[in-house]
Amino acid sequence: MADAIGKVLATAICGQTQFMLGANVALNSALLIQEAGPAGHLTVTQRSWAISVTFAGALLGCVLAAALAPPLGARRLLLMLMPLAAAGSVAIYCGDGAFGWTVAGRLLVNTALGAGDGQARAYVAEVAAPAQRAVLSTAVGLLLFVGQLVGLALASVWRWPLQQLACTCAPAALGALGLLLLPDTAQWLMARGRDEKLAADALAFYRGQDFDTASEIDNIRASVEEAGAPLGRTWRALCRRSALRPLLLTAGQFFFFVWTGGFFLVVVTALVVGGLPLPLDDYQRAMLVPAVALLGTPPASPLLRRAGRLPLLRASGALSAVGCATIAAGDLMGAEHAARGWLALGGALVCLLPYSTLLTAITFNYLGELLPNSVRSLAVSLVMGWFGLLVFVSLQLYEPLLGAISVGGVFLVHAAVSLLQVLYASTLLLQRLTALPSSRFSSASSTLNLRRLPSSWKR
């Protein structure tokens, strides 16, 4: 019972980063809606900069995490980032929406969240038992949608600077206090050469007093010794084949995560459902996406526990292709067709549900299981940096693409990429792979179907 409470606490505490991320996404919509009205202070160009700095901060945060996560560990780094995010929101509120204060504050907030996103997910994945990782990863992801809904609800009655203050300071304070109660992960402690008793205590805290800590410590020690160097003190360990291959596979999966349609559906929701004859205001329309995701994710959790990840990724890609093609068909129909908007909404739901319920949980869970223990902190920062760069570049290209080939054409591109996701999950991507030596694979911490590996990888 105590070990279950520990994992729930870790999920809720680390999930405050996701809550703040969700509220920050909601802030983009609130800022655009409110600043476009008569009470707005920002010009069109300034609004664009206020939103673009979100992704610049996320990239800066990934660089910060790459430097600080190996020596500090995920828990200490998150503890340091919570007051940084709160300070940024205070700057925005004190500036009362002034452009300079807005840009500086949002840069600070998003740097903190960008640095903490991957580390929070990786911490939860490391402390969870293999059978529970998918469920806990899904729970962490749910807090992002909760943050979006709460942020949009508050923005409908408050000015957006006050919404930013409330949705950042409160979860940051809760997260910081909670992190003081949690131990560092056993993987990080042993990789930094700390006393093995501390690692055993950390394992007992999350796995229970009856857990075979000695066997798990042997597995972690073997992983660290195979890397040839302590965690984060050299890049040579990351360049080893046993670490580089999982890193590249995970980076490839994040490309499909961004471009299979669901991710950008969140960004261009108004373009897809804006023409629907629904009695909803701007805030309520913006709530459609997180509400659908929040309602659809819990029923899908049993699938994550019982079905293999690769079949689920293939199913997610296939459904996403159907949904994107339906959106494209609705957009390409003439404006006189009454069913045009409803067809687009149906396609959006078909695309969004596998994205929010399957693709997100599985992709981010790979940060905790595909990446090796010995270089995980550094590798997570690199993957999240790649993710941030991919999002930044893709968003810069997205508007010109929409202007050149329309929403329908862009979603045909998403449909094609979704089919490539099916091919990727069928050929290259692995079910699960840790960095334990081949003679030390443990069924308690790794499940690897060697028949899925190309013959050249088995040697």
UniProtKB/TrEMBL annotation:
Keywords: Membrane, Transmembrane, Transmembrane helix. The chain crosses the membrane at residues 49-70, 77-101, 134-158, 165-182, 254-278, 342-366, 378-398, 404-430. Residues 10-433 form the Major facilitator superfamily (MFS) profile domain. Gene3D superfamilies: MFS general substrate transporter like domains. GO terms for molecular function: transmembrane transporter activity. This is Facilitated trehalose transporter Tret1-2. One of its GO terms (cellular component) is membrane. PROSITE patterns: MFS (PS50850). InterPro entries: MFS_dom (IPR020846), MFS_sugar_transport-like (IPR005828), MFS_trans_sf (IPR036259), MFS_Trehalose_Transporter (IPR050549). The keyword Transmembrane applies. It comes from the Eukaryota. It is a multi-pass membrane protein. It is found in: Membrane.
